[in-house]
Amino acid sequence: MSRTRNALSVVAAATAVAIAGCGLGPGPGTSDVNLTVTRNFGTAPLGSFTEQRVPGSETVMRMLERHFQVATRYGGGFVESIDGRSGTSSERDWFFYVNGVEAAKGAAVTAVHKGDRIWWDLHDWSATDSIPAVVGSFPEPFVNGTGGRRLPTVLECASEVSHACERVAKELDAVHVPVAMQAIGTGGSGTDSLTIVVGTAQDLRVEIVSDLLDQGPRASGVYARFAGRGGSALELLDPEGDVVRTLGTGSGLIAATSQNGAPPTWVVTGTTAGGVNAAAAAFSPAALHDHFALAVQGASDIPVPVGGSM
Hints:
globular, 310 residues, 18 strands, Chitobiase, domain 2, Ferric Hydroxamate Uptake Protein, Chain A, domain 1
């Protein structure tokens, strides 16, 4: 959790203490909650647990403390280390995501809901201290939504990538997620829906998400962006935001982002229709597992950001 969230976490911890003092008893509890801890943007797993029965009034912090040795600061509201691993500089900290969405509150006051996928990761935040959404908890947030509330899913498709769009729709259907399909750029997804946009980088130009990707990680939280005429190249960035690899024709990208606290928008995109098809083929829990975003070149899956081990 970055320094910009320290104050929020302190307030959250104080609020949790106040609530406890009011004598609120535990609720009925919930089930099927997964906790994963990694470092370096998901590339180094440290542990994962699934609980079929979670105590009532459970919080993300309490669940973490049951499974790992946790050191905190600021009255217990800020995670300093997990199992002895802490940030090695002022720009490496612990962050957590619930169902692939960056936490809006401190762990001490973030409630756990049925089916939640909680993910803690220790990583470099020198390029950005906010990554609003990640793809590595798929099929979340489409199955259970956010904050215990399932949201409708809208699938926006460009006309020349119908096969890729069908592939994405089929994967969602396999996990019992109904979708409303519409043409790319027609809007209508609103602030109460999850959106998946399927199309080439050129197709994405009619979408706000394209502008966010163009501006880099500080705007989108995505360590990849399209370059060249019509998005003919895909630049992959390292944790510091520098371009370390450039992919050409036929490359694809699966990523998620958000703006102003709205539900995430996912993109299944590429430099060409072939790149979109390659990305759609990787649209699965196995391929996306524990990745912040995923680039695809031929038969190779490339987790994004690239490199930067610590």
